[in-house]
Design goal:
The complex is a heterodimer of chains A (150) and B (215). With 150 residues, chain A is mainly alpha-helical. Chain A has six helices and no strands. The chains are: A mainly alpha (150), B mainly alpha (215).
């Protein structure tokens, strides 16, 4: 069952490549307003998505492989969503790639993306450690009399 | 509503793992043929690129949108990439938040998805008509090569820093360009719309400042 996600990944990588999202300079040209190829890719993907989601909602579709009703719940609002999104955007502009296209570039032989991939790992890891420490600190401060064991 | 009663047995019989590979091969062969028929599409403002066969933006976007919809319909899982870096960290380390069971899982669907990405890029490069499209290179194309430092390690440092900003930013925001823009905006989810707008704002600021002294 999980094999199908390998297939989805291959297809997504292929399409990102054909759409031009794996060319570093395409990102620069998008933000310099020289070439709107990537804007068209995103705009049409989102438009198709909006229409498709409306149709699936109207059909009251169930997940075909799991036999449960489809849940259309979006990601929740977070406290640091806005600064996080801005940081992400700066990284996007600096590296000319995003977490989805960086591994695809590796498959194409663009080795500069190894640094970007390493950076994304590093960022995710550091966040994972720090967020956990902060959460633990909050737990400890909320329950001063109890010993946190796990 | 009763569509599923018809479709589900069909899907279960079709999606036997062996069949999945066969279908994948057929779809990729079809895409390769489609790409050959579209191979001389010129992008407005054409420039020298590592591989010059790009689909028109609307077509690639249409295909990506349909892919995201198909994945949602089949498995109730929204297309997204950045969380899979957390799962990869969980494979290596059990420290901090990576001790969580779903992040430490060795066959989470996001890992399979992530494994597919470089394979897809490889197939795309192999099926491109340019002979040098699969050449191993550290070059980033003329524009980024011009503005980033020429020194190898300095360039690497900037790219790593940019990647780290993306890693932290994606986790703070809860998603990346795939999860928040392609999937989230398709649901018209307000936090995702905000995140998408701010992704663009950040990218705009970074690129404009990076290239300001060169134009």
């Amino acid at each position: 069952m999980k094999f199908i996600f390998l297939f989805f990944g291959i297809l997504f990588g292929f399409l990102l490549s054909r759409g031009g999202a794996t060319t570093f300079d395409m990102h620069a040209r998008l933000f310099l307003f020289e070439n709107f190829q990537l804007l068209w890719v995103i705009a049409s993907a989102v438009s198709v998505g909006i229409i498709g989601v409306l149709i699936l909602k109207w059909l009251r579709a169930r997940a075909l492989l799991l036999d449960i009703p489809l849940q259309f719940e979006g990601k929740a609002m977070r406290r640091y969503l806005a600064p996080g999104a801005l940081l992400f955007g700066v990284g996007w502009g600096l590296t000319g790639s995003c977490p989805g296209t960086a591994p695809v570039m590796l498959g194409e032989g663009k080795l500069a993306t190894l640094f970007t991939l390493g950076g994304i790992f590093l960022g995710t890891y550091v966040y994972g450690i720090l967020a956990h420490r902060k959460r633990q600190a909050v737990c400890v401060s909320l329950t001063p009399s109890m010993k946190v064991t796990s | 509503m009763h569509l599923n009663i018809i479709l589900k047995p069909l899907m279960f019989s079709v999606l036997h793992p062996l069949w999945v590979h066969t279908i994948a091969l057929f779809v990729l062969a079809f895409l390769a043929m489609l790409q050959n028929s579209l191979s001389h599409v010129t992008v407005p403002g054409e420039f020298s690129m590592s591989h010059s066969i790009l689909w028109p933006g609307w077509l690639a976007g249409l295909a990506i949108g349909l892919l995201a919809l198909t994945q949602l319909w089949l498995s109730n899982r929204q297309l997204g990439v950045s969380q899979s870096y957390g799962h990869l960290c969980g494979l290596i380390s059990r420290a901090g938040t990576f001790r969580r069971s779903e992040l430490a899982a060795t066959d989470h669907w996001l890992l399979w998805f992530f494994l597919g990405l470089p394979l897809g890029g490889f197939i795309a490069a192999v099926t491109a008509s340019d002979a040098d499209s699969l050449a191993l290179t550290f070059s980033m194309g003329e524009m980024y090569d011009r503005v980033l430092p020429q020194t190898f390690w300095l360039k690497g440092l900037i790219l790593t820093g940019g990647g780290a900003l993306m890693g932290v930013g994606a986790r703070l925001a809860g998603g990346c360009t795939s999860g928040h823009v392609i999937s989230g905006c398709a649901l018209l989810n307000p936090p995702s719309l905000l995140a998408g707008a701010l992704f663009f704002a950040g990218g705009l600021a970074a690129v404009q400042m990076l290239f300001a002294s060169f134009i």
